[in-house]
Design a protein that fits this description.
Elements lengths: L1 H39 L4 H38 L5 H4 L21 H21 L7 H20 L14 H10 L7 H15 L3 H9 L7
């Protein structure tokens, strides 16, 4: 306990000594500048010392501002040299083949929760269409990708029409809801096996991906991802 008190007193004494030393340096410097000025200007030693102190403070303040400005410009130059940081949307893209992100995002303004949701769901639907129905054998890979994107548009429209829901509630979709939404959009409903595969892909992903499910529950479609 005594050692702690002594240690605290020692720190206080060091601080006081530092302050006194700084004051002594300022006074000594100002006195020296004042003495020199008094030899050439019509001032008393006290007046010259006071003017020297004020001038020293002004020069120190001005110099610190200039130095700070130069350091700030240097940091900005270094940042510009490194180039812009990659967007969060791009850095979080999984390394997988499928429908590219550029299908949903063309600029930083497009990097919303809705774009991320559509990108993920479209690729899940695409993968399941290939795995379950082997559509690439009859339609071709590009056509299957476009089909997955159109189905994702229908899925997104169904979810966007729903009100907010608590996080405890599951997010699911049915074949009947997909058909109803396609009727609203003036689209001819796809075969049941395609719609069933779509519903299974969406429900499977949202059953474990709370991040995507929360976009639907909380309706954060326009939030920047």
């Amino acid at each position: 306990m005594i050692l702690k008190i002594l240690g605290g007193l020692f720190v206080v004494l060091l601080v006081i000594a530092g302050i006194l030393a700084a004051i002594a340096v300022i006074i000594g410097w100002s006195y020296g500048v004042g003495w020199i000025a008094a030899q050439f200007l019509p001032f008393t030693l006290f007046e010259a010392t006071l003017l020297g102190m004020l001038a020293s403070i002004f020069v120190f303040f001005l110099g610190s501002r200039i130095l700070s400005s130069l350091l700030s410009e240097g940091e900005e130059t270094m940042e510009a040299g490194r180039g812009p940081d990659p967007s969060l949307f791009i850095t979080r893209l999984p390394e997988e083949e499928g429908i590219p992100a550029s299908r949903f995002v063309q600029s930083e303004e497009d990097e919303t929760d809705e774009s991320w949701f559509r990108y993920q769901i479209a690729n899940d639907i695409y993968d399941d269409l290939l795995a379950d129905l082997d559509l690439d054998a009859t339609m071709g890979e590009t056509q299957v990708k476009e089909l997955a994107v159109r189905l994702t548009d229908v899925v997104t429209a169904v979810f966007k029409a729903r009100p907010k829901k608590p996080r405890s509630q599951r997010v699911t979709i049915t074949v009947a809801q997909l058909k109803k939404q396609m009727d609203k959009m003036g689209l001819r409903p796809y075969d049941n096996d395609i719609l069933k595969t779509t519903a299974n892909a969406v429900n499977g992903r949202l059953s474990f991906d709370d991040e995507l499910a929360d976009i639907v529950r909380q309706k954060t479609w326009r939030d920047i991802y």
